[in-house]
UniProtKB/TrEMBL annotation:
It comes from Neodiprion lecontei. Residues 1-46, 109-149 are annotated as: Disordered. This is WD repeat-containing protein 37. InterPro entries: WD40/YVTN_repeat-like_dom_sf, WD40_PAC1, WD40_repeat_CS, WD40_repeat_dom_sf, WD40_rpt. Keywords: Cytoplasm, Nucleus, Repeat, WD repeat. Residues 24-46 have a biased composition (Polar residues). It comes from the Eukaryota. The gene is LOC107224162. GO terms for cellular component: cytoplasm; nucleus. PANTHER family: WD REPEAT-CONTAINING PROTEIN 37, WD40 REPEAT PROTEIN 12, 37. The keyword Cytoplasm applies.
Length: 509
């Protein structure tokens, strides 16, 4: 058997069959051990040393001295304790982060519920006492400034206790894409259809009421990044990662559109939502598929990220990662103008519903307003964001609403590019937003939330998100429908789902 620590300190360790010479360095642990044994008069076989012997699995297994085994054991015990302390600390920090996120949500936007939990009321100071303390420290100008700040803070707090103004319920799911969905758009008035653009290299046309896929376009060789219906004809415009945009025939079978899904199909869709996210209706029936475009629009050297029709649809605009936007003739497919000026890749393009105007967004933190009403087009540059501008769209009131990765959404006057009319702060990056004809701004976020605001920046509602409804991954795009059907807002995301929502004022419910 290996000798006890006192014997081994002489530099030798003996066994039955072999002897091992181990260099020895005196440590504080050894000194304490020797002093304990000398005071108690113990030997390695007495109780004070039994805990060393107990860790030996076999007296002749290996040649590591017992004192080294005990020291290794103590070291591993210390490491285990440190890991336990780090784990406990991380759990506590995560709880603090979650609590701070919830508090930020309440303070910045209001909860949209009737009231907050009683414990949360203590988080807010008495605004009267606070205003009194601040007014005592400065002049009249400082008093006015402080008063405005307090009013703004108070209004945010009070908004948390207001009754909800909008009723938001999920009505439909459109399931079938095999990968993330970049964009959703709504058909023209009188046609209850939507279209989606997906990373799975396809675009699809869906019936709003039945949830069926009526047509699948597979003409692109890359991700389909955007889709738009023609304003008056059965055509669709798509932009793709294959550096092209396509115009294709979007005629659908309306008899198939009116056919409602059976109860078995609905059950299959619900089951697939919890597993793969791929709908069963598409698997039971072969989809009508279109592979050939009516017109292929070339001219970009990079990914075409978005495209839209100008009023009248005689011309269209594309936005690309090659830092340019192209103005095309729809009939010939020829490039009329190349719009240059952005310093980085473009992210979005949107056109005015009446005038020959378009706005392009870019990663250079700006968006540009292009005016084609004159033979020599003009451009205005809007600089108000600090990170990528993900989208900018026109409103019916001739305003522009822009969204950005800097977690803000800004409302701009068309004739004033210096400063925004309103700024909406968020806790997550905002993606491709949409504005309804009544001025309700729907904002999709990276954190799976969708929020509704008016053009003055006042929060109206947050769409519900639970395990049974709402998106499970980033929400990429939203679109409003003006027909007044069962769904009037649609959203899509990287969970491969398109959701149809009913958004109504509470007074109309």
């Amino acid at each position: 058997m290996p000798s006890d620590p006192s014997t081994a300190s002489g530099g030798k360790s003996s066994g039955k069959t072999k002897r091992i010479s181990i260099p020895r360095v005196q440590s504080s642990t050894d000194t304490e051990l020797q002093s304990q044994q000398s005071q108690a008069g113990s030997t390695p076989l007495q109780p004070t040393a039994l805990h060393y012997v107990s860790f030996r699995s076999d007296p002749d297994d290996g040649g590591v001295p017992q004192f080294l085994r005990s020291r290794l054991h103590e070291a591993f015990q210390q490491i285990e304790k440190e890991f336990e302390m780090l784990y406990t600390e991380n759990v506590g920090l995560q709880e603090k982060v979650d609590a701070l996120n919830e508090r930020l949500e309440r303070e910045c936007y209001g909860s949209g519920e009737r009231s907050l939990p009683p414990g949360d009321l203590t988080d807010y100071p008495d605004t009267k006492n606070l205003s009194k303390q601040k007014s005592m420290g400065g002049g009249s100008a400082q008093k006015v400034k402080t008063s405005h700040k307090l009013k703004a803070q108070t209004s945010k707090i009070v908004s948390s206790f207001k009754n909800p103004t909008m009723s938001c319920t999920m009505q439909r799911e459109y399931v079938g894409h095999r990968d993330g969905i970049w964009e959703v758009t709504v058909g023209r008035l009188g046609q209850p259809i939507i279209a989606t653009a997906s990373t799975d290299h396809t675009a699809r046309v869906w019936a709003i009421d039945s949830g069926r896929c009526l047509l699948q376009y597979t003409g692109h060789n890359g991700s389909v990044n955007s889709v738009r219906f023609h304003p008056s004809r059965d055509l669709a415009l798509t932009a793709s990662g294959d550096c092209s945009a396509h115009v294709w025939q979007a005629a659908v079978n309306w008899d198939q559109a009116k056919k409602l899904p059976s109860s078995e199909e609905i059950a299959g869709m619900v089951s697939d939502r919890t597993t793969t996210g791929v709908g069963s209706i598409d698997e039971q029936e072969e989809l009508p598929t279109l592979r050939t475009p009516v017109r292929e629009l070339l001219g970009h050297s990079g990914v075409v990220i978005a495209a839209d029709w100008l009023p009248g649809a005689e011309q269209l605009v594309t936005a690309s990662w090659d830092r340019t936007a192209n103005l095309y003739d729809t009939e010939t497919g020829e490039v009329i103008h190349t719009l240059c000026g952005h310093d980085q890749e473009l992210t979005h393009v949107s056109t005015h519903h009446i005038h020959r105007l378009c706005v392009t967004s870019s990663k250079d933190s700006t968006f540009r307003l292009w005016d084609f009403r004159e033979p020599i087009h003009s451009v205005s540059v809007f600089q108000g964001h600090t990170e990528t501008v993900t989208s900018a769209v026109f409103t019916r009131e001739d305003k522009i609403v822009s969204s950005s990765d800097d977690r803000s959404v800004k409302v701009w006057e068309l004739r004033n590019i210096r400063s925004p009319l309103a700024t909406i702060r968020a806790d997550s990056a905002a993606n491709r937003l949409a504005v309804s004809s009544s001025g309700v701004v729907a904002i999709p976020h990276d954190n799976r939330q969708i929020r509704l605001f008016d053009l003055s920046g006042q929060r109206l509602a947050r769409l519900p998100r639970t395990s049974r409804q709402g998106h499970r991954r980033m929400v990429c795009s939203v679109a409003w429908a003006e027909d007044g059907g069962i769904c009037n807002l649609f959203s899509c995301g990287f969970d491969r789902l398109v959701l149809g929502w009913s958004i109504l004022p509470v007074k109309d419910v």
